[in-house]
Amino acid sequence: MAINIVARCEFSKILKRSMKWSLILLLGLVALAHVRAEVEELDNEDLLEELLDLELDESEEELLRQFEEKNLNKDVERENEIASKLAADTNNILNPVVEIDPCEKMHCGAGRVCHLEGVTAKCICIPECPDEVDARRRVCTNKNETWPSDCSVYQQRCLCDTKDPGCLNPSNTHLHIDYYGECHELKECTEEEMKDFPRRVRDWLFNVMRDLAERDELTEHYMQMELEAETNMTRRWANAAVWKWCDLDGDTDRSVSRHELFPIRAPLMSLEHCIAPFLESCDPNKDHRITLVEWGACLGLDPSDLNERCDDIQKSVPHLLG
Ligand SMILES: *[C@@H]1O[C@H](CO)[C@@H](O)[C@H](O)[C@H]1NC(C)=O
Ligand SMILES: *[C@@H]1O[C@H](CO)[C@@H](O)[C@H](O)[C@H]1NC(C)=O
Ligand SMILES: [Ca+2]
Ligand SMILES: [Ca+2]
Question: Does the keyword Disulfide bond apply (predicted)?
């Protein structure tokens, strides 16, 4: 994080001096710092997916895929953004005519990459996933099978979707990630642990919000809510709770469905064995939707402290130049 901030400051200074070669080096540094920050996030904070005994129908599955992809694409998009800035700069210096890459505007989704056939851009199944030696990259699927990485799961699903010989089992068209980490017997959450859990989630949510604010990755609207949370203790947990609830509500129907919980459930499952029962407890009327009042209640917050203040623009575009 510190590296990131330092890199950004340095970056704008150097930009002013128009030292283009340093700039290119620096972009590399920003990219590196960014990747580090992302890895940290995955390790300790970016926690969440689905455990709830899911019986998925096709449309739910599609929704789930979109969530998986959104998570995955966040990293890829950022890297691409940095890479294309770098490319643009290099081009301006070396070659004023910028070539248009037909793949640049192509969004292929998880497990797929853009491939040029002559001048035609096509999405194909990713030919090779990086060799993963880090056990923390392993994922557990809905079939309770451990795969080496999320990439390998998406790749397999793509191979089955396209009836490629690399498809190991036709049912793998329905393969998805249940949680990050190896499949294992899920430990039971004791009553004692559960009692303390809402407080821990509150803390965690506030810390995530603060962290995003420091990295300038919240919209102006949520920046204001974060500022309020910093300066007013009574608003601290409530604002973080409202922000996360709005953030999870991807289709902005003002309720969080089971599948919209994916981005917090999947990464947290292996780290926090209470997350599944906790999220269950957030839907006491079992209608599969979590309202803001239900969300607040399961976090131990008073409904009168919760103002439904969602930003209409759901996601800010992270600005590279601060
Ligand atoms: C999933 O697999 C793990 C390890 O292979 C096993 O310990 C666990 O009991 C399995 N879970 C279920 C629900 O079958
Ligand atoms: C803090 O927030 C509470 C609840 O919204 C409000 O009543 C109070 O006036 C605020 N305090 C300050 C110092 O802004
Ligand atoms: Ca929703
Ligand atoms: Ca409900």
Answer: yes
